[in-house]
Amino acid sequence: MQVNARCHCGQLSLFAQIDPQKVFVCFCTDCQQLSGTAFRTVVPAIQGTVQVQGDVQHYTKTAESGNRRVQGFCPVCGSPMYSKTEGDTPAYVLRVGVLEQAGALKPSVKLWQRSQWPWVERLPEVTGCEHQELF
Question: How far apart are CA 45 and CA 40, in angstroms?
Answer without folding.
Answer: 16
